[in-house]
Design goal:
The chain is mainly β and 228 residues long. The protein has one domain: Double-stranded beta-helix (4-Layer Sandwich), CATH 3.60.160.10. The chain has three helices and 19 strands. The strands form four sheets. Strands 5-6-3-10-13-8 form a six-stranded antiparallel sheet, with no helix packed on it. Strand 1 and strand 2 form a beta hairpin.
């Protein structure tokens, strides 16, 4: 199985090459195209493991209720995937014994060997303006995530500060707290930054260059009301 990212970083799509017997899982609605020899099934999770409770938990993170399963029956079957927002993608290789926390709405696809569950980040996530629940990925295999704008990886050795709404994913060896950006609350809000996520520990963070929520707040008032 190979995952190649094409048209980076503004209009990235993922080209997944599957060989006979391989299986890839993707967010509902993410497929652009695929070989006609491939088989697709839809469920709330995995074959034999799908249930409504797991799907409802995933919806709390901002993901869809259903997942699509793509099965290859021949060598070099191709599957093309995209995401709704204009931006980038990245491939994170999940390793055994390690976990990746993915922000709501950033999950695109993963190999069948990667397990997905809901991660409670505490009430601190409420103050970031993001979902209270994120996805926790474990197991082993490639994981495809998406961003609004370009995506870049930061290796944290001690501490790192990221503006809320710019985090795509991070290794679960890191912890974070919500704090002010400036030396005081007054300076933080005057500077237009407000709250930030302060990470501690050692691990990697995947950040996005743009904030979809901020873009929505900027453009929303300019849109004309829909005619009934």
């Amino acid at each position: 199985m190979e995952v190649e990212l094409v048209n980076r970083p503004s209009s990235t799509v993922a080209k997944v090459t599957l060989h006979s017997g391989e299986h890839f899982i993707a967010e509902g609605g993410s497929m652009i195209a695929m070989n006609g020899s491939m088989r697709i099934e839809t469920s709330t999770y995995k074959r034999g493991q799908g249930n409504v409770f797991k799907a409802l938990k995933r919806m709390l993170t901002g993901e869809s209720f259903f997942l699509n399963h793509y099965y290859s029956s021949q060598s070099k079957d191709e599957l093309w995937l995209s995401h709704p927002l204009p931006g980038d993608m990245d491939v994170i290789h999940v390793e055994k014994g390690a976990g990746i926390v993915v922000a709501g709405g950033s999950f695109v696809a993963c190999e069948d060997n990667v397990e997905m569950d809901m991660s409670w980040q505490g009430m601190k996530s409420f103050f970031t303006g993001e979902n209270l629940f994120w996805l926790k990925m474990s197991g082993e295999g490639p994981l495809v995530v998406s961003s609004y704008g370009s995506i870049y990886k930061v290796k944290v050795q001690d501490g790192y500060v990221v503006d809320t709404g710019h985090v795509v994913a991070f290794e679960d060896t890191l912890d974070f707290k919500i704090t002010k950006a400036g030396s005081s609350w007054w300076h933080s809000f005057l500077g237009g930054e407000g709250l930030v996520m302060e990470f501690a520990g050692r691990g990697s963070i995947w950040c996005q260059s743009h904030n979809a929520n901020e873009f929505g707040r900027l453009v929303g008032p300019l849109l004309k009301p829909r005619k009934q």
